[in-house]
Amino acid sequence: MAGITSIGVYIPRYRLSLEEIGRMWQTRGASGEKAIAGYDEDTVTMAVAASLDCMKQIGKDVDSLYLATVTAPYKEKQSAALVAGAADLRKTCHTVDFTNTLRAGTTAMKAALDAIKGGSAGQVLVVASDCRIGAPKGRFEQLLGDGAAAVMIGSDNIIAEIEGAHSIFSDFTDLWRMEKDAFVQSGEGRFIDEAGYIPTMRETVTELMEKYSLTPGDFTKIVFYAPDSRAYAGLAKTLGFVKDQIQEPFFGQIGNTGTAAAVIMLTAALEEAIPGDRILFAGYGDGADAFILRVTDNISRIKSALLMKDRLTVRVPVDYGRYLVWRNLVPVEPSGLPERAEPSLAARWRERKTIRALYGAKCRKCGTPQIHPIGQISRICVTCQAKDDFENYKFSDKTGKLFTYAIDQLQPTLNPPALNGVIDFDGGGRLICELTDYDLTRVSTGMAVEMTFRKLSQGKGIVNYFWKAKPI
Amino acid sequence: MESIKDKVAIVGMGCTRFGERWDMGVEDLLVEAAYEAFQDAGIEPNVIQAAWIGTVFSGMSAMTLAPLGLQYIPITRVENMCATGSEALRAASYAIAAGVCDIALAIGVEKLKDSGQTGVKGPAIVGDNTDGSSAIGSGYSAPASFAYLGTRYFSHYNIDRDEGKRLLAEIAVKNHYNGSLNPKAHFHNILTVEQVIKAPIVAWPLGLFDCCGVSDGAAAAIVTRADMAKNFRSDPVYIKGLAISAGARQGSMRQDYDYVHVDENVRAAQQVYAEAGIKDPRKEICCAEVHDCFTAHELVVYEDLGFSPRGRAREDIEAGTFTLKGEIPINTDGGLKCFGHPLGASGLRMMYEVYLQLQGKAGPRQVKNPRLGMTHNLGGNAGAGIGCCVVAGNEKG
């Protein structure tokens, strides 16, 4: 028996409304909004957040991490390894990027299922994360949102068994990006739906149901990828499903989140499922993957977790100008302050334990946890001056309090003013670091914070990731 | 361990006008400061036996001092962040006390305005990538690193935002008034409390006028053996104590640090008072030049140096204790607030004012019958700093 053992989601808090986009381009904007990654977020940081969310309840006993995305920060260099490092997975964890197609999320899930069934892995973390950019003024600008979701695939304590799967491939040119394309390219709308999306999905889902002798009436819910709400409703109807069976797709709340879209919808469906429910789940892109899921008694376990409707209540509207700056779509005047030094690859390598999972040290002699972002590797204890007598101590999973702070108008940032603070960790240790995802009107000394993996700066063509504090 | 007290005297000093000296390069600033000091001491440059040049950004090595044309004497460049100017004085003074030379030059310079930038670049950090900062080091500005003090001071002593802003503003107003009386200052504008409070915020709670400017400048001192001092002039100024206290980032890493004082300041002050034999600094120090890079720092310095009891600086500010006519005038020349902070020069610029005060030559800024004066710098910031204090007096013994 193999199936989903845990789920995790990350939806960034920022929203760009279609009305705001319409205001910019003097067009009548559609209603709704889309979730957009913050200025310091990307596919990797969102994947880390979804992965940590997924492992919160069941631990990190993970044999493989499969990351699905079409928006990896690097064209050459694995994103899954970055995520596994920040999530502090063991070094034998087999990391793989599934990419180049929006179907990557379900394809990774199929590969995970095969690995579990074949016995090569006990638990595989599948995380899908995307942050696609539509060309300004275009249709995709209104459509594409950002987000991530994770499912753990395993054989013990399954919340939804995967009873069957079926895939077909299809070399159909509907969406693409060549090496130099900044934005998603697309064939003509009705053509790609009528000749590609609808027949491919219909064929896959129909064949799956035939293979297992099931009909639409045997399913409580159908959850599947669609490019937009029109295609979503159209396909569901074509397949013979009725309104109550169709999972809410969240297009109007978060937009189309690419490889993550279907997985986010699946996690929402599972949150509402009861034991015995059967769910039909399908992903699309250069073919399609479809699965039959059967919800088990263990589903009650995830009820206490943060639900999708709670995740969607935090919404911070962003204006169009700020969106352009965050996505580097418009050049802005550089800061008059001296530039921050470029990250040194050698320094980053020496500091890798701290950069990845915010490891500091705890003195074996006096017990003081300690960390400093400059000169990471503690040799002499800051409290008792004992030399080289430390054990590793992880700060990324510790909560803390904001001891003092500064709202910095000068620090070069894509989201001025910057908020920096002195964080006192519960359990000991202090770190001076940047904060993120805060409401400036509610910042105060004593505020509770947790740590989150973010982009710190970009230079020398590399992404400089590190941890920031954010209000809980 | 012997004390430096009364072993070394300053017999000449020079200080350029500070400001945006577009017309002057590092070499011009050095020559201007040094030749004023030579003239003041009544000496020719060729009697200088050794020199220490302090700068953080404006030159490497002894070659920085080449523009003076000193002939093959030992010269060393020193650097200790914001305490760099005082460090040059300290090195020269110790050489005199050691008896290895009789007349030495301590000079500091910084040319910040050639960079075309509005702030100060963080210095390279030992052990890290050499071009400035760790990959994951903090990217915040200097004002932000001192805003931590203000935010915490308000929170710790339960001072509301408006009251806190007003308190800091009083410090800026005082220093700007003093600066208005000083032709060598960068800024001469008199400010009102309202102006300071309403100025744009730079790093809450610090507004534009809570922050010192960025400027160019140089200052120099001629030091000699105390027993030779009267050969040069009738009113030498004697070194009573020199102290440096370097932190190890304890405050940035340990939760027991409260961000309402600076340990490095406290310890440097304790050291210098012990060396100078000062028991009650509030009564014995007649005037002090302290490191008002940001008003929030001057606020805690009042307490760190023992001028105000802990937590009581506010009462002293409100009572006018630190104004020119107050009980213990602080930053009589206008401070970093009005001079800006060319790092290598600042410590010696402060001593220049103390020197003038002790000689009774401070003109409209003159304090009454001073006997002991003091300078103070903090390199780095609260939680990770280098405290530096120098006490000087106009009487031996």
Output the keywords.
heterodimer, A: 472 residues, alpha+beta, 22 strands, globular, B: 397 residues, alpha/beta, 9-stranded mixed beta sheet, two-stranded antiparallel ribbon, 19% strand
Overall description:
The complex is a heterodimer of chains A (472) and B (397). Chain A has helices spanning 18-25, 43-55, 79-86, 104-118, 139-143, 189-211, 229-239, 251-254, 259-272, 308-311, 320-326, 345-350, 352-357; strands at 3-10, 14-17, 33-36, 64-69, 94-99, 123-131, 146-154, 160-169, 175-176, 185-186, 221-224, 278-284, 287-295, 316-317, 359-363, 369-370, 390-394, 400-408, 418-425, 430-434, 448-459, 462-471. With 472 residues, chain A is an alpha+beta fold. Chain A has a nine-stranded mixed sheet, with helices on both faces. In chain A, strand 4, helix 3 (79-86) and strand 5 (94-99) form a beta-alpha-beta unit. In chain A, helix 2 (43-55) crosses helix 3. Chain B has helices at 26-41, 84-98, 142-156, 161-180, 193-198, 229-232, 250-253, 263-276, 281-284, 295-304, 313-319, 335-339, 343-359; strands spanning 8-15, 50-54, 75-78, 103-111, 201-204, 206-207, 216-225, 237-246, 287-289, 372-381, 384-393. Chain B is α/β, with parallel strands linked by helices and 397 residues long. In chain B, the strands form two sheets. Chain B has a nine-stranded mixed sheet. Chain B has a two-stranded antiparallel sheet with strand order 5-6. Strand 18 (400-408) of chain A pairs antiparallel with strand 5 (201-204) of chain B.
Concise structural overview:
The complex is a heterodimer of chains A (472) and B (397). Chain A has helices spanning 18-25, 43-55, 79-86, 104-118, 139-143, 189-211, 229-239, 251-254, 259-272, 308-311, 320-326, 345-350, 352-357, and strands spanning 3-10, 14-17, 33-36, 64-69, 94-99, 123-131, 146-154, 160-169, 175-176, 185-186, 221-224, 278-284, 287-295, 316-317, 359-363, 369-370, 390-394, 400-408, 418-425, 430-434, 448-459, 462-471.
